[in-house]
Write a structure and sequence with these properties.
The two termini are 62 Å apart. With 667 residues, the protein is α/β, with parallel strands linked by helices. It has 25 helices and 19 strands. Strands 11, 12, 13, 14, 15, 16, 17, 18 and 19 form a nine-stranded mixed β-sheet that branches.
Length: 667
């Protein structure tokens, strides 16, 4: 142990000697360059000429690479004027309003959820009276495109705005209102971000059609999605001509009913935007589809969080520090190469890791880190070469002491860490099951089964991820998740307990919101247990899965299944209850789970059950062995106070069927 203090003192003496030998002028100039390098590593996106364009191009690569590949969105439909429409109506600008009026009447009758019109009515036409009458008669919530000269001078002039304002006043009702269709593009005409939602304008179109508090002031990146099947676009699009005839339009009722309908133009060389995918696909996107992507993002609640500024400062500083240490390391190239590779993977991969993790990486100075690293490396290397070999050897010995070692960096720097292995960890396990879904799947069309199952699993997955859990697997309609791996946190127990209850709530919300014609859906049952499991990557060379194995998983599954017999929805073991940090639990006795011999004490989350009654129930169960008759009387009285509590009633039944506090054997 005495060697470490001596080594530290030696390092300080050598550092002092380097500073002394470098000279004042060289130290000052090196410090200035390091400061410039740090500022470049932090602010290259906005303030370094040319580099900003490169940063945006690299962002486009990241966004395209990690854009979700999805099937066609069933919530949004595009109805468009295309070039064939212009030929048929013999009008290009303004678009034929008789067509719009007829289509609106047809669409309104088909029962859409809302209608958004990405068209500016900014000059008079002969068809205006018909369109005005149609808009005023709309029963569907409909939003008409609006813009102002002050904020959109390239699309509208003063006289046009005056007409637009007058038109809006004529058609405005409680169902027909204006909405801003303003989009923002960067200097390279790429639409990457949500537009600023200006106080002088009505709400932006997507916020009007589907208001979301999470997006009230959101100005982050647009989450674009790519089609899983190139022949099946993300959004269904229909020519507006199809809806000018009600008889023809009625054939598309299933594609319109209950969906958000967005009307606009899909015309060559008009209202076209480059997107982050354009550099890869070579295709632009119409403004209407940009709005549709924003609407889908809002409906999904996918407000992408910005990488915190403090974290960007830490990474920028880390880039400079690693450059400094690398420059001071006196190694041969073959010895230094692994360190350079690690740093290249770390700083080059971090932005992609952030993107993959669902962060908004606009503003992440990925190229700035590299430029800052090069500047710092060059500055310190120049200063270090001015001192003797003894100081350079000292720098080499210090390098390894300050390299970061967190898990994320290890994975980015050393892909071989993903080799097949497992480790024993204490984890919280949640197991869910949807009652009766297998039987239901035989009663409805396979397409509806897939749609319902995907929506159900999405909602439960969102709960797990929102509470910091790891999704282990889906087994049919069952979800298996755990907390405590790969990284354990002090609040894992609390998060797991809250997630278990929230998953039941999500299941209840799901069963209340099913399409017409679908038979009733059963409730979601949840089991929660805490115990040891083997956690890691398992599989073969061709395919691996990060999962947990062991008796804890089986216990959670049996707790979930026990809910059916117990006439409950969520059950947890004592091990999980004691570590949850929650005070909402009520004891539900002792049972022997199916296939087990050892009794298990079970607990049910009951936040709406009066705290005084929870305490009273606990006291009753403690009295069973000493005063069974008195305890039963107290339990009967408690059950009578809560006549609709089936789980409590079943607890009374189980106790009546056992003696001397014995555990009830579940069939």
């Amino acid at each position: 142990m005495a060697e470490r203090p001596r080594a530290s003192r030696s390092w300080l003496r050598r550092a002092a000697r380097i500073i002394q030998d470098a000279g004042q002028w060289r130290l000052v100039s090196t410090g200035v360059v390091l400061l410039i390098a740090l500022l470049c590593a932090r602010f290259s996106w906005d303030y370094v000429p040319v580099v900003g364009d490169a940063e945006r191009a690299l962002y486009d690569v990241r966004m395209t690479g990690f854009a979700p590949r999805v099937d066609q969105d069933p919530r949004i439909v595009l109805v468009v004027y295309n070039d064939q429409t212009l030929i048929a109506t013999k009008k290009r600008s303004p678009l034929d309003r008789s067509t719009l009026a007829k289509a609106l009447r047809t669409l309104d009758a088909l029962g859409p959820k809302s209608i958004g019109i990405d068209i500016l009515i900014d000059q008079p036409q002969d068809e205006d009276p018909d369109l005005i009458a149609t808009m005023r008669a709309m029963k569907t919530r409909t939003w008409l495109g609006y813009a102002e000269v002050a904020d959109n001078a390239e699309q509208i002039i003063y006289e046009q705005q005056q007409f637009l304002d007058g038109f809006v006043k004529q058609v405005r009702t409680d169902r027909m209102k204006p909405a801003s269709i303003r989009l923002e593009a960067d200097a390279d005409n790429v639409a990457r971000s949500w537009p600023a939602q200006l106080a002088s304008l009505p709400p932006i179109l997507v916020q009007a059609m589907a208001p979301s508090p999470a997006f009230a002031k959101y100005k982050g990146s647009i989450r674009y999605r790519l089609p899983a099947d190139p022949d099946r676009p993300v959004f269904a699009s229909f020519p507006i001509d199809l809806f000018t005839d009600p008889a023809v339009g009625a054939a598309f009722a299933d594609q319109i009913r209950g969906r958000h309908v967005m009307i606009g133009g899909d015309i060559v060389d008009n209202d076209q935007f480059e997107t982050p995918m354009s550099a890869t696909t070579g295709k632009s996107m119409i403004g209407l589809e940009v709005h549709a992507n924003m609407l889908a993002q809002s409906l999904d609640g996918a407000a992408l969080p910005r990488v915190p500024g403090w974290l960007l400062w830490i990474i920028a500083l880390l880039a400079i520090m690693t450059a400094v240490f690398t420059s001071l390391a006196e190694m041969r190239w073959y010895s230094l190469a692994p360190f350079l590779i690690v740093q290249a993977i770390l700083f080059g991969g971090l932005p992609f890791w952030f993107q993959h993790g669902g962060w908004d990486t606009q503003g992440v100075p990925a190229i700035g880190w590299g430029i800052g690293w090069v500047l710092a490396f060059a500055a310190v290397g120049s200063a270090a070469r001015a001192v003797g070999s003894q100081q350079r050897r000292f720098a080499q010995s210090a390098l390894g002491k300050y390299l970061p070692r967190d898990i994320a960096n290890q994975i980015l720097a050393e892909p071989e860490k993903l080799a097949l292995h497992g480790e024993k960890r204490a984890i919280f396990v949640v197991f869910t099951d949807l009652e009766g879904f297998t039987k239901l799947s035989h009663a409805i069309a396979p397409e509806m089964v897939a749609q319902l199952l995907n929506r159900y699993l999405d909602s439960l997955s969102d709960v797990v991820l929102a509470h910091g859990g790891t999704i282990d697997k889906f087994v049919g309609d069952a979800v298996v998740a755990f907390w405590g791996a790969p990284i354990s946190r002090p609040d894992d127990g609390t998060n797991a307990a809250k997630a278990a209850y929230a998953m039941w709530q999500a299941g209840e919300a799901f069963r209340k919101d099913v399409p017409e014609g679908v038979p009733p859906i059963g409730k979601t049952r949840v089991g929660l247990h805490y115990g040891e499991a083997i956690v890691g990557n398992f599989g073969g060379e061709g395919r691996i899965q990060y999962t947990a194995l062991g008796d804890s998983m089986n216990t959670a599954a049996r707790l979930e299944a026990a809910n059916k017999s117990l006439q409950a929805s969520v059950m947890a073991s004592r091990e999980a209850m004691e570590r949850s940090g929650m005070d909402w639990w009520r004891p539900m006795g002792r049972v022997i789970l199916r296939g087990r011999a050892k009794p298990v004490e079970i607990f049910e989350p009951a936040p709406d059950f009066p705290a005084s009654d929870r305490d009273h129930l606990t006291a009753i169960l403690r009295r069973l062995t000493e005063d069974r008759e008195g305890a039963l009387k107290g339990l009967i009285a408690l059950v009578m106070r809560h006549p609709e509590d089936t789980a409590l009633a079943h607890l009374l039944y189980r106790i009546e069927q056992t003696e001397n506090g014995d555990a009830y054997v579940l069939g």
